[in-house]
């Protein structure tokens, strides 16, 4: 009562000031400042249409080989359907080329028996198996197989995908149509969930740090790497196994992209010429599959254990087109914003970049818009001929959710090996280019201090990753 009386006796502004002062003194102190930590790449792993493994893929890429071939009815994964339905579906597809991972037991081939054909693998769809295979290579390359509990707690996983296992969804829908729903596998849901790639990797190696999965269409791999970088920078982990994975070579996925008129249709009789980034003859992308996984690590952590360092991640830029579900805006503003953001946080000037791995998928609209955006960002550095530029999708097609991670690895290897990879099938460059500003048509040995990798996805989602040589 005495307090109430005292407050009544005070003027309203006075007691409010007193109340605010007393309340503010009981609030929490501000959070401690976040000290950004430097992040480096210490391990690489890949499964691609050029082969299984980093060395196999890189060698074939640099030599100008192509991993694209003719699509067959067997590739459509319709074993549960009658032959007539399989044949009809295949005939109706307007695009009959694909970039498919070579499988077998020979060196450089993906061994399906190791990843899919045992009882313990029943819960794994193909995209998960690809991620596990690439992750194993990356972890061995990084020499990071921690057994101590605290080390496992400080190691996380960030692996995303674009579509998951559409073939499993098609098979499940058939069971409903045939009134055989009781035959549905109890592993159906775990096989189709995007985050199960990260989940299986974390379970296999006991990693208890962040367990994350981005799903941003064709920018997924880049966003997964960028998000993992931020987790290390902010102290959530010391090591991250990060990248993207995809397996969309199936009837429904290909039919869907055909109906959206995104895939190439002019080169069904000449598959290896079908993916033509920046070329006047391009008419759509080639659907591909595979996985790219990197081991990212805090710099001092890597140095203290004597790890091999390939490169440093210096910038991660993101943006949205806010324009159209599949088409970028003609002014390329989304791409420009993503690249600009990556440079702002990097401490690197565009003139210091030696190589750009473009997103360019071989679509008529997207390639030209990105080329103009690159010209805008790099200005006279690009038009002088000092900037090496290529799209590696001519060799591997478009790996959708895995593309950004695989192409990030190509950018890292370009820095580490001093070779900028070529663009296949560039016989008549788009008019946006001139003599000095021109994508590479042959792999080029050159010192590469910094490289930029672009990834853009449906829905107008954009990501740019900027790498520099090892500190």
UniProtKB/TrEMBL annotation:
PANTHER family noted in UniProt: 3-OXOACYL-[ACYL-CARRIER-PROTEIN] SYNTHASE, MITOCHONDRIAL, POLYKETIDE SYNTHASE-RELATED
NCBIfam families: fabF (TIGR03150), PRK07314.1 (NF005589)
Ketosynthase family 3 (KS3) domain: residues covered: 36-469
Source species: Prunus avium (Cherry)
Gene3D superfamilies listed in its UniProt record: 3.40.47.10
Top EC category: transferase
Pathway the protein acts in: Lipid metabolism; fatty acid biosynthesis
Documented EC number(s): 2.3.1.41
Protein name: 3-oxoacyl-[acyl-carrier-protein] synthase, mitochondrial
CDD domains: KAS_I_II
Record keyword RNA-binding present: no
SMART domains, A to Z: PKS_KS (SM00825)
Domain of life: Eukaryota
Cellular component GO terms held in the UniProt record: mitochondrion
One of the record's GO molecular function terms: 3-oxoacyl-[acyl-carrier-protein] synthase activity
Family membership: Belongs to the thiolase-like superfamily. Beta-ketoacyl-ACP synthases family.
Keywords noted in UniProt: Acyltransferase, Fatty acid biosynthesis, Fatty acid metabolism, Lipid biosynthesis, Lipid metabolism, Transferase
């Amino acid at each position: 009562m005495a307090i109430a009386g005292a407050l009544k006796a005070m003027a309203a502004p006075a007691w409010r000031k007193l109340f605010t002062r007393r309340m503010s003194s009981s609030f929490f102190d501000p959070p401690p400042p976040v000290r950004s930590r430097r992040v480096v790449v210490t391990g690489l792993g890949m499964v691609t249409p050029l082969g299984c493994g980093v060395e196999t893929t890189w060698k074939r890429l640099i030599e100008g080989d192509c991993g694209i071939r003719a699509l067959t009815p067997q590739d459509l994964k319709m074993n549960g359907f009658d032959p007539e339905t399989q044949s009809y579906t295949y005939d109706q597809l307007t695009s009959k080329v694909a970039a498919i991972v070579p499988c077998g037991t020979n060196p450089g081939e993906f061994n399906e028996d190791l990843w899919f054909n045992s009882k313990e693998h029943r819960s794994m769809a193909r995209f998960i198996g690809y991620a596990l295979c690439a992750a194993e290579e990356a972890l061995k390359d990084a020499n990071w197989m921690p057994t101590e509990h605290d080390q496992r707690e400080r190691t996380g996983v960030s692996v995303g995908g674009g579509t998951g296992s559409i073939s499993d969804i098609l098979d499940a829908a058939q069971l409903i149509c045939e009134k055989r729903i009781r035959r549905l596998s109890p592993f159906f849901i775990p096989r189709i969930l995007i985050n199960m790639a990260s989940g299986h990797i974390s379970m296999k190696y006991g990693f208890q740090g962040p367990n994350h999965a981005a799903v941003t269409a064709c920018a997924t791999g880049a966003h997964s790497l960028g998000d993992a970088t931020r987790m290390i920078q902010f102290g959530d982990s010391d090591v991250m196994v990060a990248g993207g994975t995809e397996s969309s070579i199936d009837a429904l996925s290909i039919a869907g992209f055909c109906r959206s008129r995104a895939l190439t249709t002019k080169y069904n009789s000449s598959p290896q010429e079908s993916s033509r980034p920046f070329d006047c003859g391009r008419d759509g992308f080639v659907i591909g599959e595979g996985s790219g996984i990197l081991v990212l690590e805090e710099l001092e952590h890597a140095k203290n254990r004597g790890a091999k360092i390939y490169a440093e991640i210096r910038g991660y830029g993101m943006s949205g087109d806010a324009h159209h579900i599949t088409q970028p805006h003609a002014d390329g503003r989304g791409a420009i914003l993503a690249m600009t953001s990556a440079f702002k946080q990097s401490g690197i000037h565009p003139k210091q970049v030696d190589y750009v791995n473009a997103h360019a998928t071989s679509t008529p609209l997207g390639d030209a818009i990105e080329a103009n955006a690159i010209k805008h960002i790099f200005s006279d550095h690009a038009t002088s001929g000092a900037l090496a530029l290529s799209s590696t999708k001519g060799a591997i097609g478009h790996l959708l959710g895995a593309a950004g991670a695989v192409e990030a690895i190509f950018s890292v290897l370009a820095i580490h090996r001093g070779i900028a990879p070529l663009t296949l099938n560039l016989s008549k460059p788009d008019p946006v280019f001139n003599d000095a500003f021109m994508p590479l048509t042959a792999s080029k040995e050159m010192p590469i201090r910094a490289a930029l990798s672009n990834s853009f996805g449906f829905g107008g989602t954009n990501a740019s990753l900027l790498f520099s040589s090892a500190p």
